[in-house]
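Morning run. Coffee first, then this:
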Amino acid sequence: MMKEHAKRILIVDDEEAVRTVLANFMSREGFESDCAASGDEAIRLLETRRYDFVITDLMMPGDDGLELLQRIRAMNSDVPVAIMTGFGTLDRTIEALRRGAVDFIEKPFDFNHISQLLYKVFERQRREAGYSEALALLVSGTFVLPNDPVVLESAARLATKRLEGTHSHDGVYLALIECLTNAMEHGNLEIGQEEKINAVSAGALDELKRSRLADPALGNRKIFLTMEARDDSLRFTVRDEGKGFDYRNLPDPTEAENLFNASGRGVLLVRCYMDEVSWNDKGNEITILK
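And here it is:
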C-alpha cells in the first residue's frame, strides 16, 4: 500500500456512516482527510485549505456531486475529483466524467479499487520529472515507446501538457493512459481480457506482465503515439505491434450494466472523456479526438 502522509483528501457525502468508513480507510492508508456533509460545506473547506483529492457522492440533497464538480472547476481548481455512484445513475455518472471527474467509485466500495485510483493519481504527480526521458523519444510528432508504464505515463503527460489548466486535461490524460496501457497489455503483451481479470483477482498481474516482457518476441515490441495539435482540437493515435482485436464486439456503452463491468470499462471511460473514438480495421490502432 502507498503511504503518503502529506496527502489530504476531502470526502463529501450526506451520510455520516459513509463519511466515517472512508475516513477510517484513508487513515489506515496513511492519508489525512476531512469530511463534508454537503456541497456548500465542501466549497467552504476548499476555499480555506488545499486538498490533493476529492471524493464526492453523486446523489445528495442540495448540490449533488455533478454540481459540486462544476463549482470546483469554476474556482479554477485542478484538484482531481472522483464520483461515488451506484446503479441507476448512469447518465449523471457519464456526465460527471465528461466534465472532468477522474473516475467513479462504486457502492458498495471496492477498497482495492480506491487504493489503486489514489495510487495512480498521486504517482502521476511524482512522475512529472520523467518528461525529459519522454522528450528524447519524440520523432516528428511521434513517440516510439517501450512497454514501460513509467515512460508511457511521462509521454502521455507531455502529449497533453498544452491542456494543463483546463477542465478537460485530466480526462484527456486518463483516456490517453488507458489507450497506451491497452496497447501494452492487450496489444504487445497479448494479455487477454479474461486473463487479466483472473490475474488481478489472484494478485498476479505484475508477475504476468513480467513474464510476457521477458519474451523478446513480445517485450521488444513498440507503441507508437502520434499527436496532432490544431487550433481547436487535439488528435492522438496509439498503435501497437500486436495482433489487434475486433472492436465491434466491445460491450455496448449505452447499457447501464456495462458501466460496472470490468470488461470494456476502460474503453467506456475513453468514450466519455473524448469527442471521437475510432479504430483501424485490424484493431491495433485507436484514434481519439478532443
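The longest strand covers residues 223-229. Good start to the day.
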